[in-house]
Amino acid sequence: MTDTPRTDPWPTGISAITLFAEDLDATKRFYREVFGLPVAFEDDNSAVFEFGNTLINLLTSAAAPELIAPAHAARADAGSRLVLTLPVADVDAMCAELAARGVTLLNGPMDRPWGIRTASFRDPGGHIWEIAK
Q1: What span, in angstroms and rounded, lies between the C-alpha atoms of 87 and 120?
Q2: Which of 20, 74, 100, 123 is the most exposed place for a label (fewest CB within 10 A)?
Q3: CA distances from 19 to 7, 34, 96, 105 (A)
Q4: If DSSP codes are grouped into helix, strand and coil, which group holds residue 49?
């Protein structure tokens, strides 16, 4: 074992998550209608929503290279690489509310082996959202 200086973890939270969207208008409308959130900031290439203390920045896929080059943004149909989870008081009731808002579930509601109840859906940008209790 080597002697390395002990340091405290530097992340204290996630302040913002940027999600790429091919159709910013449709994705922005989805977030307003499904999550019931107002747009906190927007310009021609982005729209920001406040999820508690975390900002969700929707950025047009065309503007992604400026942010992530030399990495590349995958297309929405390339498959999901993350799931964003939102806690809810009642998964079944929220599923009914989502259905009333025109959302099609990918799965659920279902009880998971690790002791929570979940359901998942996709936004127009292809990002997977999970509700859980």
Answers
A1: 12
A2: 100
A3: 31, 16, 26, 20
A4: strand
pLDDT at 118: 95
Joined tokens for residue 85: 């989870």
Rounded CA separation 85/68 (Å): 24
Q: What DSSP designation does 75 have? A: P
Q: Which residues contact 6 (CB under 8 A, 6 or more apart)?
A: none
Do the beta carbons of residue 68 and residue 79 sit within 8 Å?
A: no
Task: Specify the length of the chain in residues.
Answer: 133
> Residue 7 is which amino acid?
T
Contact indicator for 124, 23 with CB cutoff of 8 Å: yes
How far apart are alpha carbons 21 and 75 in whole angstroms? Answer: 9
How far is it, in rounded angstroms, from Cα 118 to Cα 133?
A: 7
The H or E element spanning position 107 is: strand 105-111
CB-CB neighbours of 100 under 10 Å: 8
